Amino acid sequence: MKARVTVTLKTGILDPQGKAIEGALRSLGVEGITSVRQGKVFDIELESADPARAEALLRQAADKLLANTVIENYRVDVMK
Amino acid sequence: MNAAVLVFPGINRERDMARTLRIVSGRSPAMVWHAETSLPPRTDLVVIPGGFSYGDYLRCGAIAARSPIMEAVRKFSADGGLVLGVCNGFQILCESGLLPGVLMRNAQLKFICREVYLRVERSDTPFTRGYNAGQVVRVPVAHGEGNYIADGETIARLESEGRVIFRYASPDGMIDPNWNHNGAINAIAGIVNEKGNVLGMMPHPENHVEDAVGPTDGRGLFAGLADHLAKAA
Prior knowledge:
- The complex is a heterodimer.
- Chain A is built from two helices and three strands, in the order βαβαβ.
- Chain A is an alpha+beta fold.
- Chain A has one domain (about 1-80): Phosphoribosylformylglycinamidine synthase subunit PurS (Mth169, Chain: A, 2-Layer Sandwich).
- Chain B has a single domain, classed as Rossmann fold (3-Layer(aba) Sandwich), CATH 3.40.50.880.
- Chain B starts with a strand and ends with a helix.
- The interface between A and B is medium-sized, with 11 and 18 residues.
């Protein structure tokens, strides 16, 4: 079973990398972008075929390591 | 002083730290590999040095904070043992939950390697008894992620409990955004935990202890620790 954990910065946390990318897009002439926030994506393969168990496991992984919940949120998507 | 310096893959300041501990206390520290599950017997100070543990993968300090030796450090600190984390060591302490908050990318997006001035906020801690409160010390920094932040409630607690130990300041001790080189909230450069036995700081006091190098303002921190531990022994 495959799954994806997406980690993003919480609202209000300064994201200097996102800001730099935003500026670079503007200088490339890519118009119409009002803001960029950078995050991380983890593509994960699991032994389990049980979506509920997989989700619990991935939440544990995210809480323990993948995200720093002081500054980051995460989302777990189990691919069917 | 029976210091233990932790060594993680990618750390590069452990020899500076060991040299300083030896020069100031007269005793070489034990070097403890991250895969160990216990600290040497009679350890009275754990030092987590600077560098780029695990290449700063995932987040600075994130992987090192979950290594086997950190369980032993957690127990050691719960029993009141002194823990000092410098630079990447501070990041590791935050990631391990031994200190609150997090160190974000410097506000100007640049790696900063230079001397800074720190105002010592308190002299009544084992780490700062070698200084006077309000004293300004000159020490180097070298980091890309030193911009300390925590949620508002945590910052209010740190301030009300007097747990901010070092702040970036001007040479005459004024807190001024122009001298807060990485944008840290409230110009925070170093904090202690609730019990006051775990200190994390971004600057490198271990690099300013020898006359041959220049200023020796960092010596006070280690001399104070050595004195504290000698009296406790």
